[in-house]
Structure formats: C-alpha cells, structure tokens
Design brief:
The complex is a heterodimer of chains A (465) and B (100).
Chain A: H1 4-24, H2 28-53, H3 58-80, H4 86-110, E1 118-119, E2 122-123, H5 125-153, H6 166-187, H7 190-208, H8 216-238, H9 241-265, H10 269-274, H11 280-285, H12 299-307, E3 311-316, H13 318-323, H14 326-338, E4 342-347, H15 357-364, E5 372-374, H16 375-378, E6 387-391, H17 400-403, E7 422-427, E8 447-451, H18 454-464
Parallel strand pairs in A: 3-4, 3-6, 4-5, 6-7, 7-8
Antiparallel strand pairs in A: 1-2
Helix pairs in contact in A: 1-2, 1-9, 4-5, 4-8, 5-6, 5-7, 5-8, 6-7, 8-9, 12-18, 14-18
Chain B: H1 5-25, H2 32-43, H3 47-54, H4 65-92
Helix pairs in contact in B: 2-4, 3-4
The chains are: A alpha/beta (465), B mainly alpha (100).
Amino acid sequence: MISINLLALFYLISGVLFILALRGLSSPETSRQGNLFGILGMSIAVIVTFLSIGNFSTSFIYVIVFLLIGGSIGAFIAFKIPMTAMPELVAGFHSLVGLAAVFVAISAFLNPEAFNLGFTGNIKLASLIEMSIGAAVGAITFSGSIIAFLKLRGIMSGAPIIFPGQHILNLLILISIIVLTYFLCTTQNSNLFWSLIAISFLVGILLIIPIGGADMPVVISMLNSYSGWAAAGIGFTLENTALIITGALVGSSGAILSYIMCKGMNRSFFSVILGGFGGTDQISKSNNKEQKPVKSGNSDDAAFLMKNASSVIIVPGYGMAVAQAQHALREMVDTLKKNGIKVSYAIHPVAGRMPGHMNVLLAEANVPYDEVFELEEINNDFANCDVAYVIGANDVTNPVAKTDPQSPIYGMPILDVEKAKSVLFVKRSLSPGYAGVDNDLFYRENTLMLFADAKKMTEDIIKSF
Amino acid sequence: MEIDPFVFRLSIFILSIFVGYYVVWSVTPSLHTPLMSVTNAISSVIIVGAIIAALAGNNENIFNEASVFGFLAIILAAVNIFGGFLVTQRMLAMYKKKKK
C-alpha cells in the first residue's frame, strides 16, 4: 500500500515520460530511446496502481491473466502485421482505446464507490459529467474507428455514403446527446446513461460513413485525437494525472496531424468532416476527355531514359503500397546508384492512407531516411532533375492544382513533377485519381506513361538496365 | 476558501495540451506513422482505471456487473499497450541512415 500522494507523484512521472516519448520522435536517432521512455512510463503507471490497491486477492490473479491474454494478442499482432496494413491497424487500435474508455466509464457508473465518486444513484455531479463525456467520446471513437478500419481494409467500399438530411440528422443527434447528459445529471437514471452510449455509437458511424477513401489520412488523425480526449475525460473522472496528461498529449497530437493533412490537401477541416469528396459522380464527369494524345512506353524506354540521367527523383504514392512495390523500387534505385545516378525520394504530406505512411514503407525496404524528402525540401529540385519516376501517386502531382481554379483540387500543394526533364508515370490506366480529376501531367510533352502494375514495371526496368 | 482540486487538474490538462502542441510540431514528418502508433499505446494508460474497476469486486464475487467491464477493458487496453509499443519499436528499428 502506498500513500495517495506518492501515487499521484508516480503518475506524474509517467506523464512526463510520455512527453519524452513523443519528444524522442523529433529525429529517428532519438526515437527508439523515446519509445523506451514510453514503455517505462506505462510500466510505472501499471505497477503503482497495483501497489495502491495492495489487496492481493484472487481477483488480482485474474487481472494478471487478463493482462497477459490481451498482451499476447497485441504482441502477436505487432509482429505479424505487414507494414502496408499500418493504417487499418492504427484504426483498429483506436477503436480499442475508445471501447476501453466506454467500459471504464460504465464500471465507474455502476460502482462509483470503488473510485471515490459517491454512491450508486448519487454520483458527484462533476464526476458524472466527466464520465459522460469520457463514455460518449469513447463510444464515438470506437464506432468511428471500426468504420474507418472496414474502409481501409477494403471490407467496406471507400466511396462516401451520403443520404439526404444527413447533416441535419447528425446535428439533431448531437443536440440529443447534450440533452441526455443534462437529464442524466439531474436524475441519475441509468437508462439515460445506456442511451447516451448507444447514441454515441451511432454518431461515430454516421460521422465516418460520408468520408471518402482519399480523406482517410484526416479521419485517422481525427480519431487519434478523439481517443485522446476520451482518455482525458476518464482521467478527470478517475482524478488521474497520468491519464489527463496523456489524453491532452494524444488529443493535441491528433489535432495537429489532422491540420497538417488538411493543409496537404488544401481543404478545410469542415469540408472533410461533412464528407462526400471523391464520389463516383465526379469520376464519370471526367471520362469524356480521354481523347488527348498520350505517349506510352515500356520498361526498355524507361531504363534508357534513366541510364542517360544524372539525377532521378522517385515520387511514391498509395499505389506503391497496394502493389507492394517498395522492395522492387529499392532494388531499382540500387541499380541506378551503381551507375552513378543521384536518386532521392519526394513524399507528399498526404501520400498514402495515413500520415507518414510512405516513409514507413520505404524504411521497411531499407531506404535510408536521409534520401527521403518532404515536399518543401525537395520541390525546387524537380527543375534540375532529369527523370521523375512517379509510382502510385496521382492527384499530388497534378499541375491543374496550380492552374485551374475550377478544379476540386485547386490550391492543393503539389509536387512540381512536370518541371523534370522527363516524367515516367507508372499507372495501370488513364483513370483519374481519388479526387476524380483528370491528371494534366499524362498529356504533357515530357511525360512517358508506363501502363503496368507498379511492382511488375519496376522489376522489368531492373531487367532492362 | 480552498481551491477545488478540479481546478488543479484542469490546469495540468490545459498546460499538457500546450506541451503536446509544441512537442508534436517538433516531430519529423517521416515519423508521423510511429507517432500515431505510440500515442495509441500511451493513451491505453486508461488501463489504470480498468485495473481499479476490476479489483473493486469482492472475493466471493470476483466478476460482478461492474468489475466485468473492468476486466474487459484490461484486455482491450493490454492489446493496445503491447501491440502499440511493439509495432512502434518494429517500425523505428527500420529507420536507418545512409551507409557511408
């Protein structure tokens, strides 16, 4: 048994270690140490919680057993998951945090004495509000993440689901949540508590279904943020500093990532949330102008162009992840480097389905991180480079974003691929990208289209070299 | 007049948001995916609440209606803690510098 003040100090130490864990991520060298700080912080929090209870009864053994069951499932997933599946894994993990928050809130509601929150039917008002917020945000995080998971996994179509009156319905539901919370606080009626959770689950679903596949980087960051606010809500309920600090950190982290992703697409957070972007109707509109001349080539042409180049910039996108082409790509780059060609990688902020997705895949393929550059760092270099090799990216290279105010992607920061002397564009067909916009780059004088699967084409180029 | 402890917790919360804001802006964009997985792992510190909830049952009745939710939350949070930290570790181990 340790004193309540000592306990609070240990939770504070945990919180500080979590801050250091995030701080470590400012560079890859310090990041691994940062992760260890995180693990240490978590261990301290769990151990002192055990010590604070001190009553090592039979239920304690069950706690350890359940912890180990969950732990082994988690460890198994962590080792087995392919790097291309990171977006859905993170979405899945978010849903677990959300559900755990709901369960803790339910448990606190049913047995408030255990948490010093008052008595059943007479819970302290502040605690009741805090646990309602924790439970509601947790439930929204849970069901929203499940939808995001299903969309990312391809079980559910990535196309936005829209119906008339959707936004009004969402608004009414949000109002009903506030009303329910108010009556819950005045009557302490448990049925209201259950309704609150049920409605929050519904909100999570309704919130995510109208958002299309290309906006997933925003969704996943947003849910990250929600999971933090849910944790903070529970932290206030349990009067636990570690949870409050962590919740605030995670909440702001997710919010910043959402902001960066929105900026990368030049869209407002609201327009993403309201959804409907990248629907099928937009794609059909652009189908009628496929008559323009296009130069297409094969792997020999591509290899020839690269052989005569002195610098090449690789532009990877989601298509590279789908085709699992990152390893083949690295081999191709090795071949180029052997021939004395300078190679770098250019990553758009919203390339892939989650923030930093491409960087992880390239790291997996043993690409050194100091060859990989962000948009602002590398964009001026396209003008001096001989070949740009676009593999699986589309909308983020479309010059229309700079020239056509009518275009839905107008104003989006893009990689200035068209400034390269020649552009090699690997793609299966001329179909437009997720934004449903035809890419002007396909029809440029200096563009050579390579119609093939990204991995197959990259391997063929290696052979032709 | 004493200050309500809630105010202190609120202060910690608000200050942590600011700390989070500055710390996260300093995270290099190439590590944004590990950032998401590690924030996921640390937000599972909610397990402390789950443990308290689970241990609130008495010896005759380990699994009462309140503690069952605690046990379930322990499993969920444990999946996240182990899964989150380990997958982050796995990703970070892949980030290498150019061999000179």
